[in-house]
Amino acid sequence: MTVGSRKSTLATMVFATVALAFGGCKPKAPYPLDTLAPTSDLTKAFYDLFVEVTVLDIIVLIVVVVAMLLAIAVFSTRTGAGGRPSVKHSDMYLEMAWTIIPALILLAITVPTVRVIIKTQPYTWPKNALPIEVIAHQWWWEFHYPTLGVETADELHIPTGQMIHFQMFSKDVIHSFFMPQVGGKRDVVPGQENQITLVANVPGEYYGQCTEFCGDSHANMRFRVFVQSPADFQKWVAHQLQPPVKPTSGPAAAGAKIFANAPCAICHTIRGVSGFSKQYTYGFRGPDLTHFGSRLTMAGSIMDNTPQNVAMWIRNPDDVKPGANMPTLGLSGREMNELVAYLESLK
Ligand code: HEC
Ligand SMILES: [Cu+2]
Q1: Of 137, 139, 264, which is best to mutate to test ligand 1, by the most ligand atoms within 8 angstroms of its C-beta?
Q2: pLDDT at 279
């Protein structure tokens, strides 16, 4: 490599780095897992802490770099000059300074950090909050609203302006609950209850993701969060409390019979139609399908809830999601179409 081409390679690298750095600062499209776009009191507290510490870090960086440049350019001894050492063998004031200043810097980082930890993990959890149980499974999320009687999967709905109290459990291994713009992240550990409280402020649809490696389909363990106005949330709750649709004619009615007689009913609850048997409550329970048709996504929110995708899923879950804990049940043709029609009718 000639010197010229090395120089131009270096220039390209510098240019690419700067372009990437600035490209990263100016989002062109909203990033679904953006951690710098808080929409709740919890994520705002984290964000403010991040900014506070980053500003402090930048100040420290500037001071260190300036001191270093001065040491190199101004207060250095030229080769052959043989000057006297600029620092005495021991200088008590200097040593005190470089002990006390870093201690103060650490303190300046520790105090706001501990303050946020105490604020976001109170000793006693608020009593007037809306409790939501989050149950992590390989590889999907179950959500219970114990005071409202609602059960759903992969799509969480919460109202704005109300304290939400998440109570987290795992059915198998360690997972981590993370919805970057709304809240988290909190590990979900078998045999232990972990908690988060937050008040969401901005209605919208947000993304969530399991962030603790939990097996083959860890990356396929996503979820959606729908933050709604209190009125919209109440409407959603009222709808979820309705009994499931009972089709009386057409392919959906035939599909309902197939569902009831196939092994589906062992693992999947459709209220008033099937309840999972006790032996399956650990590990291989599947999502509650009572209002499956009202959900926009499925199978850990990795795909849209469309008839084609539901058929593809039932044909071979493992193809769609490696390691999926739902067996292939050998359905096809008319039977499959009727079953899919039934599931999609469960609005
Ligand atoms: C051994 C238990 C088991 C049986 C039997 C079973 N499933 Fe599942 N099913 C699951 C599990 C577990 C999942 C979640 C998989 C994931 O997302 O990782 C699932 C997911 C689904 C989903 C997606 C739900 C959602 O909201 O994401 C549908 C639809 C579904 N199953 C339909 C069926 C049908 C129809 C049958 C019968 C033909 C059936 N299942 C049989 C365990 C089972
Ligand atoms: Cu997980």
Answers
A1: 264
A2: 44
pLDDT less than 70: residues of the chain: 1-30, 78-89, 274-284
Q: Residue of the nearest CA to atom 31 in ligand 1? A: 286
Provide the whole-model pTM: 0.84
Domain 130-230 and domain 250-345, same fold? Reply is yes
Ion ligand 2, residue ranges at CB < 5 A: 175, 210, 214, 221
Tell me, which fold does domain 130-230 have in CATH? Immunoglobulin-like (2.60.40)
Q: Which residues line ligand 1 (CB under 6 A)?
A: 139-140, 153-154, 259, 262-264, 266-268, 284, 286-287, 292, 295, 298-300, 310, 313-314, 321, 324-327, 329, 331, 339, 343
Q: So what's the pLDDT on residue 277?
A: 45
Q: Which pLDDT value is given to residue 122?
A: 78
What pLDDT, on the 0 to 100 scale, is given for residue 21? 57
Q: From ligand 1's centre to the CA of 53, what distance in Å?
A: 45
Backbone angles phi, psi at 104, to 5 degrees: -65, -40
Domain locations in the chain as residue ranges: 130-230, 250-345
CATH architecture type of domain 250-345 = Sandwich (2.60)
Residue pair 157/229 in contact (Cβ under 8 Å)? The answer is no
169 sits in the region (left: phi over 0; alpha: psi -120 to 50; else beta) called beta
CA of 281 to the centre of ligand 1 (A): 14
CA 166 to centroid of ligand 1, rounded, Å: 25
- Among 31, 32, 37, residue whose Cα is nearest residue 223: 32
Nearest CA to ligand 1 atom 7: 326
What is d(CA 150, CA 171) in angstroms, rounded to the nearest whole number? 19
- Which residues, in sequence order, are CB contacts of 221 under 8 Å at separation 6+? 136, 138, 139, 140, 141, 175, 209, 210, 214, 300
